[in-house]
Design goal:
Chain lengths: ~270, ~325
Amino acid sequence: MTGLTLRLELRRSRTLSVGLAVVVLAYGGLIAAVYPILLTNTAAIEDYMKLFPKDFMAAFGMTGSLADPGIFFTTYIGSMLWPIVAAIAAIVLATRPTCADAERGWADVCLATPLSRRRYLGAAIASQVVILGALALVTVLGVLAVGGLVGAWFDGARFLAAGGVMWLFGCAMAGVASLVAVITLSRGAAAAVTAGILIAMYLLNIIAQIQPGLAWLSGLSAFRYAGVGALIDTGTADWAGIGAFAVVAAIGWTLSLVLFRRRDLLP
Amino acid sequence: MPEAIELRGLTRWYGKRRGVIDLDAGVHEGEVFGFLGPNGAGKTTTIRMLLGLIRPSSGTARILGLDPWRQADAAHRQLAHLGSDPGYLGEMDAASLLDYLGALRGLPRGSWRPIAERLELDPSVPVRKLSRGNRQKVGVAQVFMGREPLLVMDEPSTGLDPLMQREFLALVAEARGDGRTVFLSSHNLPEIERACDRVAIIREGRLVKIATVAALVGDHTRSVNLVLGRPAIDGAFALPGVTILSSTGQDIHLMVRGDVNPLLRRLGELDVRDIAISTPDVEDLFFRYYEGTVAGSEGRPAAPGPVDAVAGEAVR
Protein backbone atom coordinates (compact mmCIF):
# COMPACT_ATOMS: atom_id res chain seq x y z
CA MET A 1 0.00 0.00 0.00
CA THR A 2 2.87 2.37 0.86
CA GLY A 3 4.69 1.35 -2.32
CA LEU A 4 1.59 2.01 -4.37
CA THR A 5 1.21 5.45 -2.84
CA LEU A 6 4.92 6.18 -3.25
CA ARG A 7 4.66 5.38 -6.95
CA LEU A 8 1.71 7.73 -7.26
CA GLU A 9 3.56 10.47 -5.40
CA LEU A 10 6.58 10.08 -7.70
CA ARG A 11 4.31 10.10 -10.72
CA ARG A 12 2.61 13.28 -9.52
CA SER A 13 6.02 14.87 -9.01
CA ARG A 14 7.25 14.28 -12.55
CA THR A 15 6.69 17.79 -13.81
CA LEU A 16 8.36 19.41 -10.82
CA SER A 17 11.25 16.94 -10.82
CA VAL A 18 11.91 17.15 -14.54
CA GLY A 19 11.64 20.94 -14.51
CA LEU A 20 14.12 21.32 -11.68
CA ALA A 21 16.40 18.70 -13.21
CA VAL A 22 16.49 20.68 -16.46
CA VAL A 23 17.40 23.80 -14.48
CA VAL A 24 20.26 22.16 -12.56
CA LEU A 25 21.52 20.39 -15.67
CA ALA A 26 21.46 23.54 -17.76
CA TYR A 27 22.99 25.79 -15.13
CA GLY A 28 25.46 23.20 -13.83
CA GLY A 29 26.46 22.32 -17.39
CA LEU A 30 26.97 25.95 -18.30
CA ILE A 31 29.08 26.59 -15.22
CA ALA A 32 31.12 23.44 -15.80
CA ALA A 33 31.69 24.49 -19.41
CA VAL A 34 33.08 27.80 -18.19
CA TYR A 35 35.50 26.15 -15.75
CA PRO A 36 38.39 25.66 -18.24
CA ILE A 37 38.17 29.38 -19.07
CA LEU A 38 38.48 30.17 -15.37
CA LEU A 39 41.52 27.90 -15.14
CA THR A 40 43.35 29.59 -18.01
CA ASN A 41 42.54 33.03 -16.66
CA THR A 42 43.04 32.34 -12.98
CA ALA A 43 45.62 35.05 -12.43
CA ALA A 44 43.50 37.77 -14.02
CA ILE A 45 40.38 36.69 -12.17
CA GLU A 46 42.18 36.60 -8.84
CA ASP A 47 43.54 40.08 -9.44
CA TYR A 48 40.00 41.19 -10.09
CA MET A 49 38.73 39.45 -6.97
CA LYS A 50 41.26 41.28 -4.86
CA LEU A 51 39.24 44.42 -5.50
CA PHE A 52 36.57 43.02 -3.16
CA PRO A 53 36.96 42.85 0.64
CA LYS A 54 38.21 39.44 1.72
CA ASP A 55 35.47 39.03 4.31
CA PHE A 56 32.85 39.89 1.74
CA MET A 57 34.15 37.18 -0.59
CA ALA A 58 34.27 34.71 2.29
CA ALA A 59 30.66 35.47 3.05
CA PHE A 60 29.74 34.04 -0.33
CA GLY A 61 31.90 30.95 -0.01
CA MET A 62 34.84 32.25 -2.03
CA THR A 63 37.55 31.53 0.53
CA GLY A 64 40.12 30.34 -1.97
CA SER A 65 40.74 30.34 -5.66
CA LEU A 66 37.89 29.83 -8.08
CA ALA A 67 40.31 27.57 -9.88
CA ASP A 68 39.85 25.08 -7.04
CA PRO A 69 37.03 22.74 -8.07
CA GLY A 70 35.51 22.74 -4.60
CA ILE A 71 35.43 26.54 -4.28
CA PHE A 72 34.18 26.78 -7.83
CA PHE A 73 31.39 24.27 -7.25
CA THR A 74 30.39 25.72 -3.87
CA THR A 75 30.33 29.28 -5.15
CA TYR A 76 28.14 28.66 -8.15
CA ILE A 77 26.11 25.61 -7.18
CA GLY A 78 26.50 24.30 -3.62
CA SER A 79 25.76 27.61 -1.91
CA MET A 80 23.73 29.23 -4.61
CA LEU A 81 21.76 27.10 -7.05
CA TRP A 82 21.24 24.06 -4.89
CA PRO A 83 19.66 25.77 -1.84
CA ILE A 84 17.13 27.43 -4.14
CA VAL A 85 16.32 24.26 -6.08
CA ALA A 86 16.22 22.09 -2.97
CA ALA A 87 14.03 24.60 -1.13
CA ILE A 88 11.54 24.69 -4.00
CA ALA A 89 11.39 20.90 -4.19
CA ALA A 90 11.29 20.43 -0.42
CA ILE A 91 8.57 23.00 0.19
CA VAL A 92 6.35 21.89 -2.69
CA LEU A 93 6.67 18.20 -1.89
CA ALA A 94 6.54 18.47 1.88
CA THR A 95 3.45 20.68 1.98
CA ARG A 96 1.51 18.75 -0.63
CA PRO A 97 0.16 15.78 1.36
CA THR A 98 -0.88 17.63 4.50
CA CYS A 99 -1.83 21.04 3.10
CA ALA A 100 -2.57 21.11 -0.62
CA ASP A 101 -4.12 17.65 -0.84
CA ALA A 102 -6.06 18.15 2.36
CA GLU A 103 -7.43 21.42 1.01
CA ARG A 104 -8.44 19.98 -2.35
CA GLY A 105 -10.00 16.90 -0.73
CA TRP A 106 -7.62 14.28 -2.12
CA ALA A 107 -6.38 13.47 1.39
CA ASP A 108 -9.99 12.73 2.42
CA VAL A 109 -10.40 10.38 -0.54
CA CYS A 110 -7.26 8.44 0.36
CA LEU A 111 -7.67 8.49 4.14
CA ALA A 112 -11.22 7.13 3.97
CA THR A 113 -9.69 3.90 2.63
CA PRO A 114 -7.63 1.42 4.65
CA LEU A 115 -4.56 3.56 3.84
CA SER A 116 -3.46 4.80 7.26
CA ARG A 117 -2.28 8.33 7.89
CA ARG A 118 1.15 6.95 8.74
CA ARG A 119 1.47 5.18 5.42
CA TYR A 120 -0.04 8.10 3.52
CA LEU A 121 2.46 10.59 4.90
CA GLY A 122 5.25 8.01 4.98
CA ALA A 123 4.93 7.50 1.25
CA ALA A 124 5.02 11.25 0.68
CA ILE A 125 8.18 11.52 2.81
CA ALA A 126 9.77 8.66 0.89
CA SER A 127 9.04 10.51 -2.34
CA GLN A 128 10.81 13.59 -0.94
CA VAL A 129 13.87 11.47 -0.13
CA VAL A 130 13.92 9.95 -3.60
CA ILE A 131 13.32 13.16 -5.55
CA LEU A 132 15.82 15.25 -3.58
CA GLY A 133 18.37 12.47 -4.00
CA ALA A 134 17.74 12.30 -7.72
CA LEU A 135 18.05 16.07 -8.08
CA ALA A 136 21.32 16.14 -6.13
CA LEU A 137 22.65 13.31 -8.27
CA VAL A 138 21.59 14.98 -11.51
CA THR A 139 23.22 18.23 -10.38
CA VAL A 140 26.56 16.54 -9.71
CA LEU A 141 26.43 14.27 -12.75
CA GLY A 142 25.63 17.22 -14.99
CA VAL A 143 28.72 19.07 -13.80
CA LEU A 144 30.87 15.95 -14.07
CA ALA A 145 29.60 15.09 -17.54
CA VAL A 146 29.98 18.56 -19.04
CA GLY A 147 33.28 18.98 -17.20
CA GLY A 148 34.49 15.79 -18.87
CA LEU A 149 33.37 17.05 -22.27
CA VAL A 150 35.32 20.29 -21.93
CA GLY A 151 38.38 18.61 -20.46
CA ALA A 152 37.83 19.57 -16.82
CA TRP A 153 38.31 16.23 -15.12
CA PHE A 154 36.68 16.68 -11.71
CA ASP A 155 37.13 14.09 -8.96
CA GLY A 156 33.99 12.01 -9.42
CA ALA A 157 34.02 10.37 -5.99
CA ARG A 158 34.42 13.65 -4.12
CA PHE A 159 31.75 15.33 -6.23
CA LEU A 160 29.38 12.45 -5.52
CA ALA A 161 30.16 12.79 -1.81
CA ALA A 162 29.34 16.48 -2.15
CA GLY A 163 26.09 15.45 -3.79
CA GLY A 164 25.35 13.38 -0.70
CA VAL A 165 25.82 16.44 1.52
CA MET A 166 23.56 18.45 -0.76
CA TRP A 167 20.95 15.71 -0.57
CA LEU A 168 21.05 15.70 3.24
CA PHE A 169 20.74 19.49 3.25
CA GLY A 170 17.66 19.21 1.07
CA CYS A 171 16.22 16.48 3.31
CA ALA A 172 16.69 18.73 6.35
CA MET A 173 14.70 21.45 4.56
CA ALA A 174 12.00 18.93 3.68
CA GLY A 175 11.87 17.64 7.27
CA VAL A 176 11.36 21.15 8.62
CA ALA A 177 8.81 22.03 5.91
CA SER A 178 6.94 18.79 6.56
CA LEU A 179 6.75 19.47 10.29
CA VAL A 180 5.61 23.06 9.85
CA ALA A 181 3.05 21.91 7.29
CA VAL A 182 1.57 19.38 9.71
CA ILE A 183 1.48 21.96 12.50
CA THR A 184 -0.10 24.73 10.46
CA LEU A 185 -1.94 22.70 7.79
CA SER A 186 -1.29 25.74 5.62
CA ARG A 187 0.89 25.57 2.54
CA GLY A 188 1.51 29.31 2.58
CA ALA A 189 2.50 29.35 6.23
CA ALA A 190 4.74 26.30 5.89
CA ALA A 191 6.45 27.72 2.81
CA ALA A 192 6.93 31.10 4.47
CA VAL A 193 8.36 29.64 7.67
CA THR A 194 10.71 27.26 5.87
CA ALA A 195 11.92 29.87 3.42
CA GLY A 196 12.24 32.38 6.25
CA ILE A 197 14.41 30.01 8.26
CA LEU A 198 16.64 29.41 5.23
CA ILE A 199 17.04 33.09 4.46
CA ALA A 200 17.75 33.86 8.12
CA MET A 201 20.42 31.15 8.20
CA TYR A 202 21.94 32.44 4.99
CA LEU A 203 22.14 35.95 6.43
CA LEU A 204 23.55 34.64 9.71
CA ASN A 205 26.32 32.92 7.82
CA ILE A 206 27.16 36.08 5.88
CA ILE A 207 27.13 38.23 9.02
CA ALA A 208 29.36 35.73 10.78
CA GLN A 209 31.88 35.92 7.93
CA ILE A 210 31.85 39.71 7.69
CA GLN A 211 31.90 40.46 11.42
CA PRO A 212 34.65 38.46 13.17
CA GLY A 213 33.07 39.29 16.53
CA LEU A 214 29.93 37.50 15.45
CA ALA A 215 31.68 34.48 13.98
CA TRP A 216 29.85 32.24 16.42
CA LEU A 217 26.63 32.94 14.52
CA SER A 218 27.78 30.70 11.71
CA GLY A 219 27.35 27.75 14.05
CA LEU A 220 23.63 28.42 13.93
CA SER A 221 23.53 28.39 10.16
CA ALA A 222 22.98 25.31 8.04
CA PHE A 223 24.94 27.03 5.27
CA ARG A 224 28.15 26.65 7.26
CA TYR A 225 27.76 22.86 7.04
CA ALA A 226 26.31 22.83 3.54
CA GLY A 227 29.51 24.16 1.96
CA VAL A 228 31.23 21.35 0.11
CA GLY A 229 34.37 23.17 -1.03
CA ALA A 230 36.70 21.50 1.48
CA LEU A 231 35.13 18.11 0.85
CA ILE A 232 35.87 18.34 -2.88
CA ASP A 233 39.27 20.00 -2.62
CA THR A 234 40.77 18.25 0.40
CA GLY A 235 38.42 15.40 1.24
CA THR A 236 37.66 16.86 4.67
CA ALA A 237 34.32 17.93 6.01
CA ASP A 238 32.50 18.80 9.20
CA TRP A 239 30.85 15.43 9.50
CA ALA A 240 29.06 16.31 12.75
CA GLY A 241 27.45 19.28 11.07
CA ILE A 242 26.53 17.24 8.03
CA GLY A 243 25.15 14.53 10.32
CA ALA A 244 23.01 17.22 11.90
CA PHE A 245 21.20 17.55 8.56
CA ALA A 246 20.23 13.90 8.78
CA VAL A 247 19.13 14.34 12.38
CA VAL A 248 17.02 17.42 11.60
CA ALA A 249 15.41 15.61 8.68
CA ALA A 250 14.70 12.51 10.76
CA ILE A 251 13.26 14.53 13.65
CA GLY A 252 11.15 16.68 11.35
CA TRP A 253 9.70 13.72 9.50
CA THR A 254 9.18 11.61 12.61
CA LEU A 255 7.37 14.40 14.42
CA SER A 256 5.33 15.00 11.28
CA LEU A 257 4.20 11.38 11.28
CA VAL A 258 3.34 11.48 14.97
CA LEU A 259 1.50 14.81 14.84
CA PHE A 260 -0.33 14.07 11.61
CA ARG A 261 -1.96 11.07 13.25
CA ARG A 262 -3.47 13.41 15.83
CA ARG A 263 -4.50 16.32 13.61
CA ASP A 264 -8.06 17.12 12.71
CA LEU A 265 -8.27 17.31 8.95
CA LEU A 266 -10.61 20.18 8.34
CA PRO A 267 -12.06 20.69 4.88
CA MET B 1 -31.14 -4.89 15.58
CA PRO B 2 -27.33 -4.47 15.30
CA GLU B 3 -26.13 -0.96 14.64
CA ALA B 4 -23.84 -0.16 11.72
CA ILE B 5 -23.44 3.41 12.93
CA GLU B 6 -23.98 4.59 16.46
CA LEU B 7 -23.80 8.20 17.58
CA ARG B 8 -24.02 9.01 21.27
CA GLY B 9 -23.99 12.61 22.36
CA LEU B 10 -21.77 13.38 19.39
CA THR B 11 -20.69 17.00 19.56
CA ARG B 12 -18.17 19.02 17.67
CA TRP B 13 -17.26 22.65 18.14
CA TYR B 14 -14.86 24.61 15.94
CA GLY B 15 -13.69 27.02 18.58
CA LYS B 16 -16.86 28.92 19.43
CA ARG B 17 -18.50 27.96 16.17
CA ARG B 18 -21.05 25.18 16.27
CA GLY B 19 -20.47 22.03 14.28
CA VAL B 20 -22.96 19.52 15.64
CA ILE B 21 -24.44 19.24 19.11
CA ASP B 22 -25.37 16.14 21.03
CA LEU B 23 -26.30 13.87 18.16
CA ASP B 24 -27.89 10.62 19.25
CA ALA B 25 -28.77 8.23 16.50
CA GLY B 26 -28.31 4.70 15.31
CA VAL B 27 -28.25 3.31 11.80
CA HIS B 28 -29.35 -0.30 11.61
CA GLU B 29 -27.30 -2.78 9.67
CA GLY B 30 -28.72 -3.31 6.22
CA GLU B 31 -30.81 -0.15 6.04
CA VAL B 32 -30.54 2.93 3.87
CA PHE B 33 -30.42 5.91 6.17
CA GLY B 34 -30.97 9.41 4.87
CA PHE B 35 -29.35 12.42 6.48
CA LEU B 36 -31.11 15.61 5.52
CA GLY B 37 -30.19 19.16 6.22
CA PRO B 38 -29.26 22.39 4.49
CA ASN B 39 -25.72 23.65 4.06
CA GLY B 40 -24.11 24.37 7.39
CA ALA B 41 -26.50 22.14 9.34
CA GLY B 42 -23.68 19.79 10.32
CA LYS B 43 -23.97 16.92 7.84
CA THR B 44 -20.39 17.05 6.62
CA THR B 45 -19.06 17.52 10.14
CA THR B 46 -20.90 14.37 11.19
CA ILE B 47 -19.53 12.43 8.23
CA ARG B 48 -15.97 13.64 8.89
CA MET B 49 -16.25 12.35 12.44
CA LEU B 50 -17.61 9.05 11.14
CA LEU B 51 -14.59 8.78 8.87
CA GLY B 52 -12.13 9.62 11.63
CA LEU B 53 -10.95 12.76 9.86
CA ILE B 54 -11.84 14.95 12.81
CA ARG B 55 -12.33 14.19 16.50
CA PRO B 56 -15.53 14.78 18.40
CA SER B 57 -15.40 17.49 21.06
CA SER B 58 -17.48 15.13 23.17
CA GLY B 59 -19.58 12.04 22.69
CA THR B 60 -18.77 9.03 20.58
CA ALA B 61 -19.26 7.69 17.09
CA ARG B 62 -19.01 4.01 16.28
CA ILE B 63 -18.85 2.27 12.93
CA LEU B 64 -19.69 -1.41 13.19
CA GLY B 65 -18.53 -1.24 16.77
CA LEU B 66 -15.25 0.50 15.92
CA ASP B 67 -14.10 3.94 17.01
CA PRO B 68 -13.36 5.69 13.70
CA TRP B 69 -10.71 7.92 15.31
CA ARG B 70 -8.82 5.42 17.44
CA GLN B 71 -9.41 2.42 15.19
CA ALA B 72 -9.36 4.25 11.89
CA ASP B 73 -7.55 1.57 9.91
CA ALA B 74 -9.96 -1.18 10.96
CA ALA B 75 -12.99 1.06 10.52
CA HIS B 76 -11.91 2.09 7.03
CA ARG B 77 -11.73 -1.54 5.95
CA GLN B 78 -15.45 -1.72 6.65
CA LEU B 79 -16.59 1.27 4.64
CA ALA B 80 -16.51 3.00 1.30
CA HIS B 81 -16.91 6.75 1.18
CA LEU B 82 -17.90 9.28 -1.42
CA GLY B 83 -17.55 12.96 -0.57
CA SER B 84 -19.72 15.73 -1.94
CA ASP B 85 -16.98 17.09 -4.17
CA PRO B 86 -14.16 14.57 -4.11
CA GLY B 87 -10.79 16.16 -4.80
CA TYR B 88 -9.68 13.68 -7.39
CA LEU B 89 -6.35 14.22 -9.08
CA GLY B 90 -7.19 15.93 -12.35
CA GLU B 91 -4.14 14.65 -14.16
CA MET B 92 -5.13 11.00 -13.71
CA ASP B 93 -7.61 9.31 -15.99
CA ALA B 94 -10.63 7.76 -14.34
CA ALA B 95 -9.37 4.22 -14.91
CA SER B 96 -6.01 4.86 -13.21
CA LEU B 97 -7.67 6.74 -10.40
CA LEU B 98 -10.21 4.00 -9.74
CA ASP B 99 -7.56 1.29 -9.98
CA TYR B 100 -5.44 3.15 -7.43
CA LEU B 101 -8.31 3.67 -5.01
CA GLY B 102 -9.41 0.08 -5.56
CA ALA B 103 -5.91 -1.20 -4.81
CA LEU B 104 -5.93 0.72 -1.52
CA ARG B 105 -9.07 -1.22 -0.65
CA GLY B 106 -7.54 -4.53 -1.75
CA LEU B 107 -9.64 -4.78 -4.91
CA PRO B 108 -8.31 -6.23 -8.17
CA ARG B 109 -7.72 -3.96 -11.15
CA GLY B 110 -10.82 -3.15 -13.11
CA SER B 111 -13.26 -3.82 -10.26
CA TRP B 112 -14.95 -0.60 -11.19
CA ARG B 113 -15.69 -1.58 -14.80
CA PRO B 114 -19.18 -3.07 -14.30
CA ILE B 115 -20.32 0.04 -12.45
CA ALA B 116 -18.65 2.37 -14.96
CA GLU B 117 -20.43 0.59 -17.79
CA ARG B 118 -23.78 0.98 -16.07
CA LEU B 119 -23.08 4.67 -15.57
CA GLU B 120 -21.77 5.07 -19.15
CA LEU B 121 -18.51 6.49 -17.85
CA ASP B 122 -15.58 6.82 -20.26
CA PRO B 123 -12.65 5.76 -18.05
CA SER B 124 -9.94 6.93 -20.42
CA VAL B 125 -10.56 10.66 -19.98
CA PRO B 126 -8.41 12.64 -17.51
CA VAL B 127 -10.51 13.61 -14.54
CA ARG B 128 -9.89 17.33 -15.07
CA LYS B 129 -11.58 17.09 -18.46
CA LEU B 130 -14.69 15.45 -17.07
CA SER B 131 -17.89 17.39 -16.49
CA ARG B 132 -19.27 17.70 -12.97
CA GLY B 133 -21.70 14.89 -13.65
CA ASN B 134 -19.05 12.58 -15.08
CA ARG B 135 -16.74 13.28 -12.14
CA GLN B 136 -19.62 12.27 -9.92
CA LYS B 137 -19.93 9.05 -11.89
CA VAL B 138 -16.30 8.34 -11.01
CA GLY B 139 -17.26 8.80 -7.37
CA VAL B 140 -20.27 6.52 -7.65
CA ALA B 141 -18.13 3.86 -9.34
CA GLN B 142 -15.55 4.30 -6.60
CA VAL B 143 -17.98 3.76 -3.78
CA PHE B 144 -19.85 0.83 -5.31
CA MET B 145 -16.89 -1.09 -6.77
CA GLY B 146 -16.09 -2.87 -3.51
CA ARG B 147 -17.99 -5.07 -1.10
CA GLU B 148 -17.63 -3.07 2.11
CA PRO B 149 -20.59 -3.51 4.48
CA LEU B 150 -21.05 0.24 4.98
CA LEU B 151 -21.34 2.96 2.34
CA VAL B 152 -21.12 6.58 3.47
CA MET B 153 -22.09 9.09 0.83
CA ASP B 154 -22.34 12.85 0.91
CA GLU B 155 -24.45 14.35 -1.89
CA PRO B 156 -23.67 11.38 -4.14
CA SER B 157 -25.97 12.12 -7.05
CA THR B 158 -25.20 15.82 -7.45
CA GLY B 159 -24.72 16.56 -11.11
CA LEU B 160 -26.06 13.22 -12.34
CA ASP B 161 -28.71 13.41 -15.02
CA PRO B 162 -32.11 11.83 -14.26
CA LEU B 163 -31.24 8.56 -15.97
CA MET B 164 -28.04 8.24 -14.00
CA GLN B 165 -29.82 9.22 -10.82
CA ARG B 166 -32.15 6.32 -11.45
CA GLU B 167 -29.14 4.05 -11.96
CA PHE B 168 -27.66 5.36 -8.77
CA LEU B 169 -30.85 4.56 -6.87
CA ALA B 170 -30.78 1.07 -8.38
CA LEU B 171 -27.24 0.63 -7.07
CA VAL B 172 -28.36 1.75 -3.63
CA ALA B 173 -31.25 -0.70 -3.74
CA GLU B 174 -28.90 -3.50 -4.76
CA ALA B 175 -26.56 -2.64 -1.93
CA ARG B 176 -29.45 -2.82 0.51
CA GLY B 177 -30.49 -6.12 -1.08
CA ASP B 178 -27.01 -7.42 -0.37
CA GLY B 179 -27.42 -6.50 3.28
CA ARG B 180 -25.09 -3.53 3.13
CA THR B 181 -25.78 -0.37 5.07
CA VAL B 182 -26.00 2.97 3.29
CA PHE B 183 -25.64 6.33 5.02
CA LEU B 184 -26.81 8.90 2.53
CA SER B 185 -26.42 12.59 3.18
CA SER B 186 -28.33 14.57 0.62
CA HIS B 187 -30.12 17.71 -0.37
CA ASN B 188 -32.01 15.72 -2.96
CA LEU B 189 -35.23 15.14 -1.10
CA PRO B 190 -37.04 13.03 -3.70
CA GLU B 191 -33.94 10.84 -3.82
CA ILE B 192 -34.02 10.41 -0.06
CA GLU B 193 -37.71 9.62 -0.21
CA ARG B 194 -37.16 6.97 -2.86
CA ALA B 195 -33.97 5.44 -1.51
CA CYS B 196 -34.15 5.53 2.25
CA ASP B 197 -35.75 3.41 4.91
CA ARG B 198 -35.30 6.05 7.57
CA VAL B 199 -34.42 9.69 7.58
CA ALA B 200 -32.77 11.98 10.09
CA ILE B 201 -33.29 15.70 9.79
CA ILE B 202 -30.52 17.87 11.14
CA ARG B 203 -31.04 21.53 11.81
CA GLU B 204 -28.45 23.95 13.13
CA GLY B 205 -26.29 21.08 14.35
CA ARG B 206 -29.03 19.20 16.17
CA LEU B 207 -31.11 16.24 15.13
CA VAL B 208 -34.73 17.26 15.10
CA LYS B 209 -36.34 14.13 13.72
CA ILE B 210 -35.57 10.51 12.99
CA ALA B 211 -38.27 8.43 11.43
CA THR B 212 -39.06 6.04 8.64
CA VAL B 213 -39.92 7.81 5.44
CA ALA B 214 -43.36 6.22 5.55
CA ALA B 215 -43.96 7.36 9.11
CA LEU B 216 -42.59 10.81 8.41
CA VAL B 217 -45.03 11.28 5.57
CA GLY B 218 -47.87 9.36 7.20
CA ASP B 219 -47.69 11.21 10.48
CA HIS B 220 -48.43 14.52 8.92
CA THR B 221 -51.31 16.42 7.53
CA ARG B 222 -53.09 15.68 4.30
CA SER B 223 -55.12 18.09 2.32
CA VAL B 224 -58.54 16.69 1.36
CA ASN B 225 -60.80 18.45 -1.14
CA LEU B 226 -64.32 17.09 -1.37
CA VAL B 227 -67.25 17.72 -3.70
CA LEU B 228 -70.42 16.33 -2.14
CA GLY B 229 -73.74 15.51 -3.80
CA ARG B 230 -75.56 17.49 -1.11
CA PRO B 231 -74.38 19.65 1.79
CA ALA B 232 -73.14 17.72 4.79
CA ILE B 233 -74.96 17.96 8.05
CA ASP B 234 -73.41 20.03 10.82
CA GLY B 235 -70.75 18.12 12.74
CA ALA B 236 -70.24 15.58 9.94
CA PHE B 237 -66.50 16.24 10.06
CA ALA B 238 -66.11 16.61 13.79
CA LEU B 239 -63.57 13.81 13.80
CA PRO B 240 -60.22 13.36 15.54
CA GLY B 241 -57.42 15.13 13.63
CA VAL B 242 -59.79 16.68 11.06
CA THR B 243 -59.99 20.43 10.57
CA ILE B 244 -62.37 22.17 8.19
CA LEU B 245 -60.39 24.81 6.34
CA SER B 246 -63.23 25.97 4.15
CA SER B 247 -66.76 24.91 3.33
CA THR B 248 -69.14 26.26 0.70
CA GLY B 249 -71.89 23.76 1.20
CA GLN B 250 -70.95 20.99 -1.18
CA ASP B 251 -67.29 21.98 -1.69
CA ILE B 252 -65.27 21.26 1.41
CA HIS B 253 -61.54 21.57 2.11
CA LEU B 254 -60.27 19.59 5.06
CA MET B 255 -56.89 19.05 6.69
CA VAL B 256 -56.38 15.64 8.26
CA ARG B 257 -53.63 14.88 10.72
CA GLY B 258 -52.65 11.35 11.70
CA ASP B 259 -55.05 8.45 11.20
CA VAL B 260 -57.25 8.92 8.14
CA ASN B 261 -59.55 5.95 8.83
CA PRO B 262 -62.25 7.85 10.78
CA LEU B 263 -62.57 10.28 7.88
CA LEU B 264 -62.72 7.49 5.31
CA ARG B 265 -65.49 5.77 7.28
CA ARG B 266 -67.43 9.03 7.45
CA LEU B 267 -66.97 9.62 3.71
CA GLY B 268 -68.48 6.19 3.11
CA GLU B 269 -71.66 7.49 4.66
CA LEU B 270 -71.78 10.59 2.47
CA ASP B 271 -72.61 11.21 -1.17
CA VAL B 272 -69.12 12.00 -2.43
CA ARG B 273 -68.96 13.18 -6.06
CA ASP B 274 -65.24 13.87 -6.18
CA ILE B 275 -62.26 13.72 -3.88
CA ALA B 276 -58.65 14.86 -4.10
CA ILE B 277 -56.16 13.96 -1.40
CA SER B 278 -52.66 15.37 -1.54
CA THR B 279 -49.90 13.94 0.61
CA PRO B 280 -46.98 16.08 1.63
CA ASP B 281 -43.68 14.84 0.28
CA VAL B 282 -40.49 14.74 2.27
CA GLU B 283 -39.51 18.07 0.80
CA ASP B 284 -42.54 19.76 2.34
CA LEU B 285 -41.82 18.10 5.64
CA PHE B 286 -38.18 18.98 5.55
CA PHE B 287 -38.85 22.64 4.97
CA ARG B 288 -41.46 22.69 7.65
CA TYR B 289 -38.99 21.20 10.10
CA TYR B 290 -36.25 23.45 8.99
CA GLU B 291 -38.37 26.54 9.24
CA GLY B 292 -39.57 25.37 12.66
CA THR B 293 -43.20 25.71 11.65
CA VAL B 294 -44.12 22.16 12.53
CA ALA B 295 -44.24 20.95 16.07
CA GLY B 296 -43.05 17.47 16.86
CA SER B 297 -45.55 14.67 17.12
CA GLU B 298 -45.91 15.30 20.83
CA GLY B 299 -46.38 18.99 20.26
CA ARG B 300 -42.82 19.95 21.19
CA PRO B 301 -41.00 22.64 19.31
CA ALA B 302 -39.16 21.15 16.35
CA ALA B 303 -35.84 22.47 17.56
CA PRO B 304 -33.71 22.73 19.54
CA GLY B 305 -35.54 20.21 21.66
CA PRO B 306 -34.68 16.52 21.84
CA VAL B 307 -34.93 14.26 18.84
CA ASP B 308 -38.51 13.67 17.94
CA ALA B 309 -38.94 10.01 17.18
CA VAL B 310 -42.13 9.00 15.49
CA ALA B 311 -44.38 7.07 17.81
CA GLY B 312 -43.42 3.43 17.87
CA GLU B 313 -40.16 4.13 16.04
CA ALA B 314 -37.13 3.67 18.18
CA VAL B 315 -34.40 6.21 17.62
CA ARG B 316 -31.81 3.49 17.98
